Amino acid sequence: MSRNHLTLAGIVASFVCAACSGPAQTPQEAGRAGPPAAQPIAFAPCTLSGASASSNVEAHCGTLSVPENPAQPQGRRIDLRIARLDADNPGAAADPVFFIAGGPGQAATDVALPVSTALRQARRKRDIYLIDQRGTGGSNPLTCLGPDGKDLPLDENAAPNEATIRDYASACATSLEGRADPRFYATSQAIDDLDAVRKAIGVPRVNLVGASYGTRVAQRYAARYPQHVRTIVLDGVAPNDLVVGGDFANTFEDAIVLQAAQCIKDAACAKRFPVNTRTQLRTVMDALSAAPVSVEYRDPGTAQLRRDVLTADSVIGLAFAFSYMPELSSLLPVVLDEAAQGRYAPLAALARNANRSLGLQLNRGMQWSVICSEDADRYQPSAGGDRLVGAHVADMFFAACPVWPHEKAAADSTTPLTSDAPVLLLSGELDPVTPPRYAEQVLKGLPNGRHIVARGQGHGTLNAGCMPRLLGQFIDNADAKALDVSCLDTLSHVPAFTSFNGWEP
After folding, report:
1. What is the 3-state secondary structure (H, E, C) of 232-263?
2. pLDDT tens digit sequence for 121-133
Protein backbone atom coordinates (compact mmCIF):
# COMPACT_ATOMS: atom_id res chain seq x y z
CA MET A 1 0.00 0.00 0.00
CA SER A 2 1.17 3.52 -0.69
CA ARG A 3 0.64 6.67 1.26
CA ASN A 4 -0.05 9.57 -1.07
CA HIS A 5 -1.89 12.85 -1.08
CA LEU A 6 -4.97 13.23 -3.28
CA THR A 7 -4.70 16.89 -4.19
CA LEU A 8 -5.36 19.74 -6.58
CA ALA A 9 -2.73 18.51 -9.01
CA GLY A 10 -5.34 17.40 -11.52
CA ILE A 11 -6.94 20.83 -11.50
CA VAL A 12 -3.67 22.64 -11.97
CA ALA A 13 -2.79 20.40 -14.90
CA SER A 14 -6.04 20.66 -16.82
CA PHE A 15 -7.02 24.27 -17.19
CA VAL A 16 -8.17 24.57 -17.30
CA CYS A 17 -9.98 24.19 -30.25
CA ALA A 18 -14.78 33.23 -45.25
CA ALA A 19 -14.98 33.85 -48.64
CA CYS A 20 -11.84 33.05 -50.59
CA SER A 21 -10.72 31.79 -53.94
CA GLY A 22 -12.14 28.59 -55.36
CA PRO A 23 -10.98 25.19 -54.06
CA ALA A 24 -7.72 23.76 -55.27
CA GLN A 25 -6.80 20.11 -55.59
CA THR A 26 -4.95 18.85 -52.52
CA PRO A 27 -1.85 16.67 -52.77
CA GLN A 28 -3.68 13.78 -51.15
CA GLU A 29 -6.54 14.11 -53.63
CA ALA A 30 -4.06 14.13 -56.48
CA GLY A 31 -2.55 10.99 -55.11
CA ARG A 32 -5.94 9.27 -55.04
CA ALA A 33 -7.16 10.49 -58.41
CA GLY A 34 -4.02 10.26 -60.51
CA PRO A 35 -0.25 10.35 -60.42
CA PRO A 36 1.03 11.29 -56.97
CA ALA A 37 2.08 14.90 -56.54
CA ALA A 38 5.24 15.95 -54.76
CA GLN A 39 4.56 16.93 -51.16
CA PRO A 40 6.79 17.80 -48.22
CA ILE A 41 4.85 15.56 -45.83
CA ALA A 42 5.30 11.85 -46.44
CA PHE A 43 2.24 10.20 -44.92
CA ALA A 44 2.31 6.51 -44.07
CA PRO A 45 -0.29 4.21 -42.45
CA CYS A 46 -0.22 4.34 -38.65
CA THR A 47 -2.27 3.37 -35.62
CA LEU A 48 -3.07 6.00 -33.03
CA SER A 49 -3.17 4.03 -29.80
CA GLY A 50 -5.60 4.70 -26.97
CA ALA A 51 -5.85 3.27 -23.50
CA SER A 52 -7.16 -0.02 -24.92
CA ALA A 53 -7.09 -1.82 -28.24
CA SER A 54 -10.73 -0.89 -28.82
CA SER A 55 -9.78 2.78 -28.76
CA ASN A 56 -7.12 2.52 -31.47
CA VAL A 57 -7.67 4.61 -34.59
CA GLU A 58 -6.21 3.87 -38.01
CA ALA A 59 -4.72 6.92 -39.71
CA HIS A 60 -1.91 8.18 -41.91
CA CYS A 61 0.94 9.88 -40.08
CA GLY A 62 3.79 12.11 -41.10
CA THR A 63 6.02 14.92 -39.86
CA LEU A 64 6.78 18.44 -40.97
CA SER A 65 10.03 20.17 -40.07
CA VAL A 66 9.70 23.77 -38.84
CA PRO A 67 12.15 26.19 -37.19
CA GLU A 68 11.93 26.21 -33.42
CA ASN A 69 12.62 29.93 -33.37
CA PRO A 70 10.76 31.51 -36.32
CA ALA A 71 13.21 34.44 -36.27
CA GLN A 72 16.11 32.05 -36.88
CA PRO A 73 15.04 29.70 -39.68
CA GLN A 74 18.58 28.35 -39.95
CA GLY A 75 18.68 27.40 -36.30
CA ARG A 76 17.34 24.29 -34.57
CA ARG A 77 14.40 22.66 -36.31
CA ILE A 78 11.71 20.50 -34.79
CA ASP A 79 9.33 17.96 -36.28
CA LEU A 80 5.58 18.39 -35.97
CA ARG A 81 3.65 15.14 -35.75
CA ILE A 82 0.59 15.11 -38.01
CA ALA A 83 -2.09 12.46 -38.35
CA ARG A 84 -4.67 12.40 -41.14
CA LEU A 85 -7.99 10.61 -40.84
CA ASP A 86 -8.99 10.09 -44.46
CA ALA A 87 -12.43 11.10 -45.67
CA ASP A 88 -14.86 8.31 -46.47
CA ASN A 89 -15.33 9.78 -49.95
CA PRO A 90 -12.21 9.36 -52.12
CA GLY A 91 -12.97 12.74 -53.73
CA ALA A 92 -12.49 14.62 -50.49
CA ALA A 93 -13.27 18.30 -50.29
CA ALA A 94 -10.34 20.67 -50.64
CA ASP A 95 -10.96 22.26 -47.24
CA PRO A 96 -10.07 19.71 -44.55
CA VAL A 97 -10.75 19.95 -40.82
CA PHE A 98 -7.92 20.90 -38.46
CA PHE A 99 -8.59 19.75 -34.89
CA ILE A 100 -6.84 21.79 -32.18
CA ALA A 101 -6.53 20.14 -28.78
CA GLY A 102 -6.89 21.74 -25.35
CA GLY A 103 -4.92 21.89 -22.13
CA PRO A 104 -2.69 23.74 -22.78
CA GLY A 105 -0.51 20.69 -23.19
CA GLN A 106 -2.77 18.08 -24.75
CA ALA A 107 -1.62 16.32 -27.92
CA ALA A 108 -4.24 16.14 -30.65
CA THR A 109 -3.26 12.59 -31.60
CA ASP A 110 -3.93 11.44 -28.02
CA VAL A 111 -7.65 12.13 -28.47
CA ALA A 112 -8.02 10.56 -31.90
CA LEU A 113 -10.93 8.32 -30.91
CA PRO A 114 -13.28 10.96 -29.44
CA VAL A 115 -12.36 13.36 -32.23
CA SER A 116 -12.98 10.73 -34.88
CA THR A 117 -16.35 9.95 -33.29
CA ALA A 118 -17.35 13.59 -32.94
CA LEU A 119 -16.40 14.43 -36.51
CA ARG A 120 -17.70 11.25 -38.15
CA GLN A 121 -20.28 13.17 -40.17
CA ALA A 122 -17.79 15.79 -41.27
CA ARG A 123 -15.38 13.00 -42.22
CA ARG A 124 -17.73 11.72 -44.90
CA LYS A 125 -16.50 14.49 -47.19
CA ARG A 126 -13.37 15.86 -45.55
CA ASP A 127 -10.05 14.70 -44.22
CA ILE A 128 -9.47 15.35 -40.53
CA TYR A 129 -6.00 16.49 -39.46
CA LEU A 130 -4.73 16.02 -35.91
CA ILE A 131 -1.63 18.16 -35.39
CA ASP A 132 0.28 17.76 -32.15
CA GLN A 133 1.02 21.31 -31.02
CA ARG A 134 4.74 21.91 -30.57
CA GLY A 135 5.81 20.75 -27.12
CA THR A 136 3.20 17.96 -26.97
CA GLY A 137 2.85 14.36 -28.16
CA GLY A 138 5.19 13.68 -31.07
CA SER A 139 6.09 17.34 -31.70
CA ASN A 140 9.30 17.73 -29.66
CA PRO A 141 7.49 17.38 -26.33
CA LEU A 142 8.78 19.48 -23.44
CA THR A 143 9.20 16.37 -21.32
CA CYS A 144 10.80 16.80 -17.91
CA LEU A 145 13.64 14.28 -17.54
CA GLY A 146 15.87 13.39 -14.63
CA PRO A 147 19.65 12.76 -14.79
CA ASP A 148 18.90 9.13 -15.64
CA GLY A 149 16.97 10.13 -18.74
CA LYS A 150 13.68 8.93 -17.27
CA ASP A 151 10.63 11.06 -16.46
CA LEU A 152 11.43 13.52 -13.70
CA PRO A 153 9.22 12.48 -10.76
CA LEU A 154 7.15 14.96 -8.78
CA ASP A 155 6.99 13.92 -5.15
CA GLU A 156 3.40 12.72 -4.76
CA ASN A 157 3.84 12.29 -1.03
CA ALA A 158 4.21 16.01 -0.58
CA ALA A 159 1.21 18.29 -0.73
CA PRO A 160 1.78 20.57 -3.72
CA ASN A 161 2.76 24.15 -2.96
CA GLU A 162 4.34 26.98 -4.90
CA ALA A 163 7.87 26.17 -3.76
CA THR A 164 7.56 22.50 -4.73
CA ILE A 165 6.28 23.34 -8.19
CA ARG A 166 8.91 26.05 -8.68
CA ASP A 167 11.75 23.66 -7.80
CA TYR A 168 10.34 21.02 -10.11
CA ALA A 169 9.98 23.52 -12.96
CA SER A 170 13.56 24.70 -12.51
CA ALA A 171 14.86 21.14 -12.74
CA CYS A 172 12.66 20.52 -15.75
CA ALA A 173 13.95 23.61 -17.57
CA THR A 174 17.51 22.45 -16.93
CA SER A 175 16.71 19.03 -18.39
CA LEU A 176 15.46 20.65 -21.60
CA GLU A 177 18.78 22.33 -22.38
CA GLY A 178 19.99 21.13 -25.76
CA ARG A 179 16.57 19.67 -26.60
CA ALA A 180 14.25 22.65 -26.64
CA ASP A 181 13.97 26.34 -25.82
CA PRO A 182 10.66 26.74 -23.93
CA ARG A 183 10.39 30.39 -25.03
CA PHE A 184 9.16 29.28 -28.45
CA TYR A 185 6.36 26.91 -27.47
CA ALA A 186 3.47 29.31 -26.96
CA THR A 187 0.33 30.03 -28.97
CA SER A 188 1.92 32.46 -31.41
CA GLN A 189 4.34 29.83 -32.72
CA ALA A 190 1.57 27.21 -32.79
CA ILE A 191 -0.49 29.41 -35.11
CA ASP A 192 2.33 29.66 -37.61
CA ASP A 193 2.84 25.90 -37.37
CA LEU A 194 -0.80 25.32 -38.32
CA ASP A 195 -0.38 27.51 -41.37
CA ALA A 196 2.83 25.72 -42.30
CA VAL A 197 0.88 22.45 -42.30
CA ARG A 198 -1.86 24.05 -44.40
CA LYS A 199 0.73 25.15 -46.96
CA ALA A 200 2.43 21.77 -46.91
CA ILE A 201 -0.75 19.87 -47.78
CA GLY A 202 -1.66 22.44 -50.43
CA VAL A 203 -5.08 23.66 -49.36
CA PRO A 204 -6.32 27.27 -49.55
CA ARG A 205 -8.68 27.09 -46.57
CA VAL A 206 -9.34 24.93 -43.54
CA ASN A 207 -12.18 24.30 -41.12
CA LEU A 208 -10.99 24.82 -37.55
CA VAL A 209 -12.31 22.80 -34.61
CA GLY A 210 -10.84 23.97 -31.30
CA ALA A 211 -11.53 22.50 -27.88
CA SER A 212 -10.95 24.38 -24.59
CA TYR A 213 -7.51 26.03 -24.87
CA GLY A 214 -7.69 25.02 -28.55
CA THR A 215 -10.39 27.68 -28.93
CA ARG A 216 -7.74 30.31 -28.11
CA VAL A 217 -5.49 28.90 -30.82
CA ALA A 218 -8.35 28.80 -33.33
CA GLN A 219 -9.38 32.40 -32.62
CA ARG A 220 -5.85 33.69 -32.96
CA TYR A 221 -5.27 31.70 -36.15
CA ALA A 222 -8.46 33.19 -37.61
CA ALA A 223 -7.25 36.67 -36.70
CA ARG A 224 -3.80 36.21 -38.25
CA TYR A 225 -4.87 34.18 -41.31
CA PRO A 226 -8.52 35.09 -42.00
CA GLN A 227 -8.20 34.33 -45.71
CA HIS A 228 -7.42 30.70 -44.92
CA VAL A 229 -10.41 30.00 -42.65
CA ARG A 230 -13.67 28.60 -44.01
CA THR A 231 -15.55 27.70 -40.78
CA ILE A 232 -14.78 27.61 -37.07
CA VAL A 233 -16.12 25.40 -34.27
CA LEU A 234 -15.27 26.50 -30.72
CA ASP A 235 -16.10 23.96 -27.98
CA GLY A 236 -15.62 25.17 -24.40
CA VAL A 237 -14.87 28.73 -25.42
CA ALA A 238 -11.96 30.64 -23.88
CA PRO A 239 -12.02 34.37 -24.76
CA ASN A 240 -8.68 35.74 -25.92
CA ASP A 241 -8.40 37.95 -22.86
CA LEU A 242 -9.18 35.16 -20.40
CA VAL A 243 -6.47 34.49 -17.83
CA VAL A 244 -6.24 30.69 -17.82
CA GLY A 245 -6.92 29.54 -14.26
CA GLY A 246 -7.54 33.07 -13.02
CA ASP A 247 -11.33 32.89 -12.90
CA PHE A 248 -11.59 29.30 -11.72
CA ALA A 249 -12.84 30.14 -8.22
CA ASN A 250 -15.89 31.80 -9.76
CA THR A 251 -16.62 29.36 -12.56
CA PHE A 252 -16.23 26.34 -10.28
CA GLU A 253 -18.57 27.89 -7.73
CA ASP A 254 -21.20 28.55 -10.39
CA ALA A 255 -21.03 24.95 -11.64
CA ILE A 256 -21.47 23.54 -8.12
CA VAL A 257 -24.45 25.82 -7.47
CA LEU A 258 -26.08 24.60 -10.68
CA GLN A 259 -25.50 20.99 -9.68
CA ALA A 260 -27.00 21.63 -6.24
CA ALA A 261 -30.05 23.20 -7.86
CA GLN A 262 -30.69 20.02 -9.83
CA CYS A 263 -30.87 17.98 -6.62
CA ILE A 264 -33.28 20.47 -5.05
CA LYS A 265 -35.60 20.14 -8.06
CA ASP A 266 -35.69 16.34 -7.74
CA ALA A 267 -38.03 15.20 -4.95
CA ALA A 268 -36.15 11.98 -4.16
CA CYS A 269 -32.79 13.74 -4.10
CA ALA A 270 -34.04 16.65 -2.01
CA LYS A 271 -35.56 14.26 0.56
CA ARG A 272 -32.47 12.08 0.75
CA PHE A 273 -30.05 15.01 0.95
CA PRO A 274 -31.63 17.89 2.87
CA VAL A 275 -28.25 19.63 2.99
CA ASN A 276 -27.52 20.99 -0.48
CA THR A 277 -24.38 19.97 -2.35
CA ARG A 278 -22.54 23.24 -1.94
CA THR A 279 -23.10 23.34 1.82
CA GLN A 280 -22.13 19.70 2.19
CA LEU A 281 -19.01 20.31 0.13
CA ARG A 282 -18.04 23.16 2.42
CA THR A 283 -18.65 21.01 5.51
CA VAL A 284 -16.42 18.18 4.29
CA MET A 285 -13.72 20.60 3.13
CA ASP A 286 -13.68 22.37 6.50
CA ALA A 287 -13.37 19.05 8.34
CA LEU A 288 -10.47 17.89 6.18
CA SER A 289 -8.78 21.29 6.35
CA ALA A 290 -8.76 20.98 10.12
CA ALA A 291 -7.66 17.34 10.13
CA PRO A 292 -6.61 15.47 6.95
CA VAL A 293 -7.62 11.82 7.08
CA SER A 294 -5.62 8.73 6.20
CA VAL A 295 -7.96 6.35 4.38
CA GLU A 296 -7.57 2.78 3.29
CA TYR A 297 -9.62 1.88 0.24
CA ARG A 298 -9.57 -0.32 -2.82
CA ASP A 299 -8.28 1.30 -6.01
CA PRO A 300 -11.16 1.09 -8.52
CA GLY A 301 -8.71 0.77 -11.38
CA THR A 302 -6.50 -2.01 -10.03
CA ALA A 303 -8.57 -3.50 -7.17
CA GLN A 304 -5.45 -3.15 -4.99
CA LEU A 305 -5.64 -1.82 -1.46
CA ARG A 306 -4.24 1.69 -1.09
CA ARG A 307 -3.80 4.19 1.71
CA ASP A 308 -4.07 7.85 0.82
CA VAL A 309 -4.27 11.07 2.75
CA LEU A 310 -7.44 13.00 2.01
CA THR A 311 -7.33 16.77 2.26
CA ALA A 312 -9.72 19.60 1.42
CA ASP A 313 -7.99 19.77 -1.95
CA SER A 314 -9.02 16.15 -2.55
CA VAL A 315 -12.66 17.14 -2.30
CA ILE A 316 -12.21 20.12 -4.62
CA GLY A 317 -10.48 17.89 -7.14
CA LEU A 318 -13.31 15.35 -7.00
CA ALA A 319 -16.03 17.96 -7.44
CA PHE A 320 -14.02 19.53 -10.24
CA ALA A 321 -13.72 16.21 -12.04
CA PHE A 322 -17.42 15.56 -11.65
CA SER A 323 -18.15 18.93 -13.20
CA TYR A 324 -16.02 17.92 -16.15
CA MET A 325 -17.83 14.60 -16.43
CA PRO A 326 -21.59 14.99 -15.77
CA GLU A 327 -22.05 11.25 -16.01
CA LEU A 328 -20.24 11.06 -12.67
CA SER A 329 -21.90 14.09 -11.07
CA SER A 330 -24.80 11.90 -9.95
CA LEU A 331 -22.49 10.39 -7.34
CA LEU A 332 -21.40 13.64 -5.74
CA PRO A 333 -24.23 14.07 -3.19
CA VAL A 334 -24.03 10.50 -1.86
CA VAL A 335 -20.23 10.53 -1.68
CA LEU A 336 -20.22 13.82 0.22
CA ASP A 337 -22.94 12.53 2.55
CA GLU A 338 -20.83 9.50 3.36
CA ALA A 339 -17.79 11.67 4.01
CA ALA A 340 -19.77 14.02 6.25
CA GLN A 341 -20.50 10.98 8.43
CA GLY A 342 -16.85 10.04 8.64
CA ARG A 343 -16.88 7.34 5.96
CA TYR A 344 -14.20 8.51 3.56
CA ALA A 345 -13.37 5.37 1.58
CA PRO A 346 -15.93 6.05 -1.21
CA LEU A 347 -14.60 9.59 -1.60
CA ALA A 348 -11.01 8.37 -1.80
CA ALA A 349 -11.85 5.69 -4.36
CA LEU A 350 -13.85 8.02 -6.55
CA ALA A 351 -11.29 10.81 -6.26
CA ARG A 352 -8.64 8.46 -7.56
CA ASN A 353 -10.90 7.17 -10.34
CA ALA A 354 -11.89 10.70 -11.35
CA ASN A 355 -8.28 11.86 -11.46
CA ARG A 356 -7.43 8.87 -13.64
CA SER A 357 -10.37 9.60 -15.96
CA LEU A 358 -9.43 13.27 -16.08
CA GLY A 359 -5.87 12.41 -17.06
CA LEU A 360 -5.63 14.42 -20.23
CA GLN A 361 -2.01 13.44 -20.78
CA LEU A 362 -0.99 17.07 -20.54
CA ASN A 363 2.59 18.16 -21.06
CA ARG A 364 3.54 20.30 -18.06
CA GLY A 365 6.39 22.09 -19.82
CA MET A 366 4.32 23.16 -22.80
CA GLN A 367 1.54 24.32 -20.48
CA TRP A 368 3.98 26.50 -18.56
CA SER A 369 5.34 27.94 -21.81
CA VAL A 370 1.83 29.06 -22.73
CA ILE A 371 0.49 30.35 -19.43
CA CYS A 372 3.74 31.98 -18.30
CA SER A 373 3.96 33.86 -21.59
CA GLU A 374 0.30 34.73 -22.04
CA ASP A 375 -1.50 34.67 -18.70
CA ALA A 376 0.68 35.01 -15.61
CA ASP A 377 1.41 38.73 -15.83
CA ARG A 378 -2.28 39.51 -16.39
CA TYR A 379 -3.56 37.65 -13.35
CA GLN A 380 -5.13 39.82 -10.67
CA PRO A 381 -6.50 38.04 -7.58
CA SER A 382 -10.13 38.89 -6.98
CA ALA A 383 -11.90 39.16 -3.69
CA GLY A 384 -12.59 35.60 -2.62
CA GLY A 385 -15.63 36.22 -0.45
CA ASP A 386 -17.25 32.94 0.55
CA ARG A 387 -15.88 31.02 -2.39
CA LEU A 388 -15.20 27.30 -2.02
CA VAL A 389 -11.92 27.68 -3.87
CA GLY A 390 -9.46 30.38 -2.90
CA ALA A 391 -6.79 32.22 -4.84
CA HIS A 392 -4.25 29.49 -4.04
CA VAL A 393 -5.50 27.45 -6.99
CA ALA A 394 -4.53 30.21 -9.43
CA ASP A 395 -1.26 30.67 -7.55
CA MET A 396 -0.51 27.03 -8.28
CA PHE A 397 -1.11 27.58 -11.98
CA PHE A 398 1.56 30.25 -12.16
CA ALA A 399 4.01 28.98 -9.55
CA ALA A 400 6.51 27.83 -12.19
CA CYS A 401 6.65 31.13 -14.07
CA PRO A 402 9.44 32.86 -12.08
CA VAL A 403 11.87 30.12 -13.18
CA TRP A 404 10.37 28.94 -16.47
CA PRO A 405 11.96 30.46 -19.64
CA HIS A 406 9.35 32.50 -21.48
CA GLU A 407 8.77 35.70 -23.41
CA LYS A 408 5.85 38.03 -22.90
CA ALA A 409 3.12 37.57 -25.49
CA ALA A 410 2.38 40.34 -27.97
CA ALA A 411 0.02 43.00 -26.70
CA ASP A 412 -2.59 42.23 -29.38
CA SER A 413 -2.84 38.57 -28.37
CA THR A 414 -5.76 39.38 -26.08
CA THR A 415 -7.73 41.35 -28.67
CA PRO A 416 -11.22 39.85 -29.11
CA LEU A 417 -11.77 38.06 -32.39
CA THR A 418 -13.85 39.91 -34.99
CA SER A 419 -14.65 37.82 -38.04
CA ASP A 420 -17.32 37.35 -40.70
CA ALA A 421 -16.51 33.64 -40.87
CA PRO A 422 -19.29 31.17 -39.96
CA VAL A 423 -18.65 30.18 -36.33
CA LEU A 424 -20.40 27.61 -34.15
CA LEU A 425 -19.78 28.12 -30.42
CA LEU A 426 -20.58 25.27 -28.02
CA SER A 427 -20.87 25.29 -24.23
CA GLY A 428 -21.79 22.79 -21.56
CA GLU A 429 -24.35 24.13 -19.11
CA LEU A 430 -22.35 22.84 -16.12
CA ASP A 431 -18.87 23.59 -17.46
CA PRO A 432 -16.70 24.59 -14.45
CA VAL A 433 -13.88 26.03 -16.59
CA THR A 434 -15.36 27.69 -19.67
CA PRO A 435 -18.98 28.50 -18.75
CA PRO A 436 -21.53 29.64 -21.35
CA ARG A 437 -21.00 33.31 -20.53
CA TYR A 438 -17.51 33.09 -22.05
CA ALA A 439 -18.98 32.05 -25.40
CA GLU A 440 -21.51 34.86 -25.23
CA GLN A 441 -18.63 37.28 -24.80
CA VAL A 442 -16.82 35.94 -27.88
CA LEU A 443 -20.02 35.85 -29.94
CA LYS A 444 -20.21 39.66 -29.86
CA GLY A 445 -17.52 39.90 -32.55
CA LEU A 446 -18.99 37.18 -34.79
CA PRO A 447 -21.99 38.35 -36.85
CA ASN A 448 -22.21 34.93 -38.52
CA GLY A 449 -21.77 33.05 -35.27
CA ARG A 450 -24.21 31.06 -33.16
CA HIS A 451 -23.94 29.85 -29.59
CA ILE A 452 -25.46 26.55 -28.45
CA VAL A 453 -25.63 25.53 -24.78
CA ALA A 454 -25.83 21.77 -24.21
CA ARG A 455 -28.13 21.10 -21.26
CA GLY A 456 -26.67 19.10 -18.38
CA GLN A 457 -23.22 18.85 -19.97
CA GLY A 458 -19.81 19.75 -18.57
CA HIS A 459 -16.57 20.68 -20.28
CA GLY A 460 -16.58 19.41 -23.85
CA THR A 461 -19.73 18.78 -25.88
CA LEU A 462 -18.53 17.56 -29.27
CA ASN A 463 -19.93 14.07 -28.66
CA ALA A 464 -23.08 15.05 -26.75
CA GLY A 465 -26.25 13.58 -28.23
CA CYS A 466 -26.75 14.59 -31.86
CA MET A 467 -23.87 17.08 -31.82
CA PRO A 468 -21.74 15.06 -34.30
CA ARG A 469 -24.56 15.33 -36.86
CA LEU A 470 -24.87 19.06 -36.27
CA LEU A 471 -21.12 19.48 -36.65
CA GLY A 472 -21.23 17.69 -39.98
CA GLN A 473 -24.11 19.85 -41.21
CA PHE A 474 -22.40 23.05 -40.12
CA ILE A 475 -19.05 22.22 -41.71
CA ASP A 476 -20.80 21.13 -44.93
CA ASN A 477 -23.09 24.14 -45.24
CA ALA A 478 -21.06 26.83 -43.44
CA ASP A 479 -24.21 28.31 -41.90
CA ALA A 480 -24.53 28.13 -38.11
CA LYS A 481 -27.79 30.06 -37.93
CA ALA A 482 -29.61 27.66 -40.26
CA LEU A 483 -28.97 24.63 -38.03
CA ASP A 484 -32.00 22.89 -36.57
CA VAL A 485 -30.75 22.08 -33.08
CA SER A 486 -34.01 20.67 -31.72
CA CYS A 487 -32.41 17.21 -31.53
CA LEU A 488 -30.37 18.51 -28.56
CA ASP A 489 -33.58 18.82 -26.55
CA THR A 490 -33.12 15.15 -25.64
CA LEU A 491 -30.10 16.05 -23.51
CA SER A 492 -30.86 16.15 -19.82
CA HIS A 493 -29.26 16.35 -16.42
CA VAL A 494 -28.08 13.10 -14.84
CA PRO A 495 -30.26 12.38 -11.78
CA ALA A 496 -28.40 12.27 -8.49
CA PHE A 497 -27.93 8.86 -6.91
CA THR A 498 -29.77 8.55 -3.59
CA SER A 499 -27.59 5.54 -2.76
CA PHE A 500 -24.77 3.64 -4.43
CA ASN A 501 -27.45 1.47 -6.07
CA GLY A 502 -28.99 4.25 -8.13
CA TRP A 503 -31.16 7.35 -7.98
CA GLU A 504 -34.13 5.73 -6.23
CA PRO A 505 -34.07 4.03 -2.80
Report:
1. EEEECCCCCCCCCCCCHHHHHHHHHHHHHHHH
2. 999 999 999 999 9
